[in-house]
Automatic annotation (TrEMBL):
Protein name, entry field: Uncharacterized protein
Length: 106
């Protein structure tokens, strides 16, 4: 489902560009009010319509049994964040650099 929001636009010479750092508004009136109140001394700025996709309604969730516990720090992580292939024990991405260093010293 597409949602319409409004942002501030300028022409940079080659194309119209949005001024992302000024934010977005749910109504065209609110964006125009911002231009009048905050940018009244700046010319060449107008309100443009933006169509964005709504967030996926189903939030990605991991079941407890899918989580993998790091053998070094004991914190449970998503399986993608734990290396279970290269070592004898599960090592998370945060502990891996130190674990590799200790393996090279031993």
């Amino acid at each position: 489902m597409k949602k319409v929001v409004y942002g501030l636009m300028i022409n940079s010479g080659d194309a119209d560009e949005m001024l992302w750092d000024h934010g977005i508004w749910e109504t065209e009136e609110a964006a125009n009010e911002y231009i009048e109140n905050e940018m009244s001394t700046i010319s060449g700025v107008w309100v443009g319509e933006l169509k964005v996709n709504d967030a996926i309604p189903e939030v990605a969730e991991y079941d407890a049994e899918e989580m993998v516990e790091c053998a070094l720090c004991g914190i449970e992580y998503n399986p993608e964040d734990v290396n279970t292939h290269d070592y004898d024990e599960a090592v998370c991405i945060n502990c891996e650099p130190g674990y590799k260093e200790n393996m090279n010293i031993a």
